[in-house]
Fold this sequence. Notes:
Blueprint: H1 4-33, E1 37-46, E2 49-60, E3 66-69, E4 79-83, E5 89-98, E6 103-108, E7 117-118, E8 129-134, E9 142-159, E10 162-172, E11 184-187, E12 191-200, E13 208-213, H2 216-228, E14 234-235, E15 238-244, H3 247-253, E16 257-264, H4 269-273, E17 280-284, E18 287-288, H5 292-298, E19 308-314, E20 317-323, E21 326-327
Parallel strand pairs: 7-12
Antiparallel strand pairs: 1-2, 1-4, 2-3, 3-6, 4-5, 5-6, 8-9, 8-11, 9-10, 10-13, 11-12, 12-13, 14-21, 15-16, 16-17, 17-18, 17-19, 19-20
Amino acid sequence: MTPPLAEADRVDRVEAEAMDAYSRVVTTVAERVLPSVASLRVVSQVRGGRLPTGSGSGVAVTPDGFLLTSAHVIEQASGGSATFADGRELAFQVVGADQLSDLAVIRADGGDLAAATLGDADKLKVGQLVCAIGNPLGFGGSVSAGVVSALGRSFAASSGAAARLVENVIQTDAALHPGNSGGALVTARAEVVGINTAVVGPGFGQGLGLAVPINITTRAIVAALMRDGRVRRAYLGIAGGSRPLPPRAAAATGRTKGIEVLSVVSGSPAARAGLRTEDIIVELDGVEIDDVGALQRLMTGERIGREVAVGIVREGRPRTLTARPTELREADLRG
């Protein structure tokens, strides 16, 4: 029988070894990613000069000056300065922002930046170790660690009257504070898998943070911002929600769910196509859809101005309509 003292020593050694391994991961991640993360001071052009309007964080994604940050960090800003871990302070200009994904691209003057390695948030698992690196409360170069506490979250983003759900948001318990927005959420492999965007709380889920995922969808958004300074989205003009299909309609279509149309914007592409309230959309342009998120993913720039087939169920019977989406403008409603 192992003496109690010897057992306690063994447990202490195991815990110490585990902590050493944990610390090694966090310190390695910090060493590799901190040079890529900048503290941002944001300024806006006002009458008589430039006025500081906020702060946040940014992540260098190319050596020649492009940084990724949160759209709300640089909202209505003309530029500012980015301070890096090596002490360099570089002026930056806003390249483009997309309020509907809360992502933005800025470009710092000069080059030779330490570009971060981007990962794939779709491969994350609940419980996985992650580190948040940014500029919380103005303390540049701060690192906190935690785990992915949930996946598949969503939050509403808006631009004017247009609204959209940002999907597959990462929830983490790594400590986030104001100023972390635009900073990096990083895996143990030092890959940036998210851009920190929000703190949940106070009083409601305090201690939880959210990050916009880096995946195939958001990479396309970032590429569009770098190339064009904006993201073009198609607009249909409906509001709706997911609904199970009635048994007869399910048997006729081979589908179990669709989007019930709750309202149709007057004069919109949906209205011109003949969509009505209580129609259930089950397919768009040959792709099965069963919730609003699936519809949003199909509302991409290449469908603007092009005729697309809209498969619906009306009064229990399948029908196909033809719509021609237009470009989503700030005055448009969700859909």
